[in-house]
TrEMBL record:
InterPro entries: GPCR_Rhodpsn_7TM. The chain crosses the membrane at residues 12-43, 70-92, 104-130, 150-171, 192-208, 228-251. It comes from Rotaria sordida. This is G-protein coupled receptors family 1 profile domain-containing protein. Its main location: membrane. The keyword Membrane applies. Keywords: Membrane, Transmembrane, Transmembrane helix. GO terms for cellular component: membrane. CDD domains: 7tm_classA_rhodopsin-like (cd00637).
Length: 286
């Protein structure tokens, strides 16, 4: 099991490095910032697990341990909520194009921190219910198997609400496009495509984490897989976050153009190539 944890840690570390590179070339977004924050919490957590496997460090259940677990789950919730925010932004651009203030960067510079605060507050009950406990076999604090209330609440907050809201936004957007009597602009069509891709990615992330959810549901009845539950859950989350960092390019096709252009610019530094890169970068804002 220690090998699995080491692979998970390496995956997060690679994701962390790629995010730093992305930030340095000016492509930081709410998704990338959230993934970076998640990596800063997940990497030390996986290191503690590896140290526990080799008896290098034995953790104790402290307030700091529980807070680290609380932040771990909170950032997962923020990631899903950020997808909902992205879908809402596309919805506003199509349905309410005259409300320019809803499209200002300043507006979302305020909304994003509020979204983070709400995500943290919604998961705060799990901390007060003491459902985040030290798991001796993992050497870290996690959501305990026996905490049914905490499990249901976390599943609802992390997965349920964001997925339902994102699907509702997508359905309402499709209904608006079909009922609209005016010709649909190219940007509106692109926004619909992006929202549909967001829905697909959210579904994929849920399917990746499905094994741990199913295992959690059958544990009270059979007890099968109890010793492997936490390791499987941790591994699936890491796989999902690593896959997400790759799928973000799929959500925003303009990012692909910039990455390709930067790759060409590293080989050819002509004026024409630099102008193309600047043009591709400006497309991301639209």
């Amino acid at each position: 099991m220690s090998n699995t944890t080491m692979i998970s840690t390496a995956s997060i570390a690679l994701n962390f490095i790629s995010l730093i590179g992305t930030i340095l070339i000016g492509l930081m977004s709410a998704f990338m910032l959230t993934l970076l924050a998640f990596a800063l919490v997940a990497v030390p957590t996986n290191i503690d697990t590896v140290q526990g496997d080799y008896n290098f460090y034995i953790a104790k259940e402290t307030l700091g341990c529980r807070i680290k677990a609380y932040m771990f789950y909170s950032f997962i919730a923020i990631i899903f909520n950020t997808f909902t925010l992205q879908a809402a932004f596309r919805f506003v651009r199509v349905v309410y194009p005259s409300h320019i203030w809803l499209q200002y960067g300043v507006t979302y510079a305020v909304i994003i921190p509020v979204l983070w605060i709400i995500s943290f507050l919604f998961l705060l009950p799990v901390h007060f219910w003491h459902d985040l406990q030290l798991i001796p076999t993992e050497n870290i604090c996690l959501l305990t198997i026996d905490g049914v209330r905490g499990f249901i609440w976390c599943t609802l907050v992390i997965y349920g609400l964001p997925v339902i809201m994102t699907c509702i936004i997508y359905i309402q957007l499709l209904r608006f496009i079909r009922r609209s009597s005016t010709p649909t602009s190219i940007r509106a069509k692109r926004d619909v495509i992006v929202v549909s891709r967001i829905v697909i990615i959210v579904v994929i992330l849920i399917l990746i984490d499905a094994p741990s959810i199913v295992l959690k549901l059958i544990l009270p009845c059979t007890g099968i897989g109890k010793s492997l539950f936490y390791r499987i859950s941790n591994t699936t989350i890491v796989i999902a976050m690593t896959a997400l960092s790759i799928m973000l390019v799929y959500v925003t096709p303009q990012v692909t153009e910039v990455l390709v252009c930067i790759g060409k610019a590293s080989k050819v530094t002509g004026i024409h190539t630099r102008q193309q890169c600047m043009l591709a970068t400006t497309k991301i804002k639209h």
